[in-house]
Design brief:
The chain is mainly alpha-helical. Among the domains are: about 5-55 and about 80-105, no CATH class; about 290-375. About 40% of the residues lie in helices and about 0% in strands. The chain has helices at about 5-25, 40-50, 65-70, 85-90, 95-100, 110-115, 165-170, 195-200, 215-220, 225-230, 250-255, 290-325, 330-350, 355-375, and strands spanning about 185, 190. Strands 1-2 form a two-stranded antiparallel ribbon. A hairpin with a 2-residue loop joins strand 1 and strand 2. Helix 12 (about 290-325) runs parallel beside helix 14. The longest helix has about 35 residues, at about 290-325. It is elongated, with a radius of gyration of 27 Å. The chain starts with a helix and ends with a helix.
Length: about 375
């Protein structure tokens, strides 16, 4: 009998024994995180070093207030609960699954509701913490639960004034929650929209900041092509020009003060409270908001002054081609196609030059030179 066979036999005996003991002593159906280790050793060992595993250093008996989120199985009648955010906090009671390996007896759901049970910050007055929630349920089905609303066109309250985890409330009204039902690939995994918390965060692992699945810049680039604009490549005939903003990465500007709306807080936003940081203030030395606003407006003006005439030129050229499709030779048609494609990069980028002004200006300068040659040919 080889070692592999022996290991399988011992594992089977362990699981059967666990199932019998749990059935007698654990009427709630919870098995505890250690029961998951034999089959899910990699995830278990990773989880042991995560923030979820260290929510409480010791077991707690009080099932009120904090325990609903900072411990596991606090919603049972057990005298003791697991003093951390264990496996069953997100996957549900696992005694039947651990005993038989039945995949239908465990929750394997990447729904944002599971995270939102705890990561929903403030609730409306007289709303309790969601002790009755179990993985697989919809938060909307919890009677009496009212989350603090976040209007997408308004700014969220300062995190200094609330329980510092309003993330689910913000996600609900973000573009991520409204992603069309289509398949995308993030970190080698297939996802169907919407983009939920687990697309970006690894609940088992704290090796990356904020338990992200990878470097934040690379993570955003999985879906958002603007990363190419930040790094300044992709435009034909244009030298690679990296933006200074690559040092800040996407989250520095789009997640100011942990904002999960993924919204830019412009310094000229009339809804911006006096004590809130705008998206420019962390890095730019100009601390006066009015001066930062003027600086931003200057940048956008440079962009529009270069971009708007090109749109007029392109409109005129297209009208000429519509009237006479053969007015340009093959070389000029290729030049026009390259200029059009290059301009589409900064149009789709949508930042009006903020992501990489030098790169955008170089694309527009080249397009201006190309359009000048083309206009001469179609006079």
């Amino acid at each position: 009998m080889n070692k592999t066979t022996i290991k399988i036999i011992f594992l089977s005996i362990f699981l059967v024994a666990l199932h019998v003991i749990s059935a007698e002593n654990n009427p709630s159906g919870y098995a505890g995180s250690t029961a998951c280790q034999p089959c899910h050793e990699e995830q278990y060992n990773s989880w042991k070093t995560s923030k979820h595993a260290a929510e409480f250093k010791t077991e707690q008996k009080d099932t009120q207030t904090c325990n609903a989120c900072h411990a596991t199985r606090s919603n049972t009648d057990q005298e003791k609960m697991e003093g951390n955010v264990g496996c069953e906090a997100c996957h549900g009671a696992g005694e039947e699954h651990a005993g038989k390996g039945d995949k239908t007896k465990i929750v394997s759901d990447r729904s944002a509701d599971i995270c939102g049970r705890c990561h929903n910050g403030n609730r409306s007055e007289n709303t309790s913490w969601t002790e009755e929630y179990k993985p697989g349920m919809k938060l909307a089905d919890i009677k009496g639960l009212k989350l603090m609303p976040v209007a997408p066109d308004k700014l969220v309250p300062s995190v200094k004034d609330i329980h510092p985890s309003l993330t689910y409330n913000m996600w609900l009204v973000s573009g991520h929650a409204k992603t069309p039902e289509r398949t995308i690939e993030i970190n080698g995994k297939k996802w169907e929209g919407p983009v939920t918390c687990a697309a970006c965060h690894n609940p088992h692992n704290s090796s990356n900041r904020a338990q992200l699945v990878m470097d934040p810049m690379e993570l955003c680039k999985s879906c958002h092509f603007q990363g190419e604009v930040l790094k300044g490549f992709g435009a034909k005939g244009i030298e690679e020009t990296r933006s200074l903003h690559t040092a800040a990465a996407c989250i520095a500007c789009h997640m100011t003060e942990k904002n999960h709306l993924m919204k830019m807080f412009r310094p000229d936003d009339p809804n911006l409270a006096e004590d809130r940081l705008d998206s420019c203030s962390d890095c730019h030395e100009i601390k006066d908001r009015k001066m930062r606003t003027a600086q931003l407006h200057d940048m956008e003006a440079w962009y529009r002054e270069a971009f708007d005439p090109l749109q007029e030129d392109l409109k005129m050229i297209d009208n000429k081609l519509k009237a006479n499709p053969d007015i340009l030779n093959a070389g000029l048609k290729a030049k026009l196609a390259d200029a059009r494609n290059n301009l589409s990069i900064i149009i789709k980028d949508g930042s009006n030059g903020v992501h990489n002004l030098d790169y955008a200006l170089e694309i527009m300068s080249q397009a201006k030179r190309d359009f000048k040659v083309i206009k001469e040919a179609i006079k």
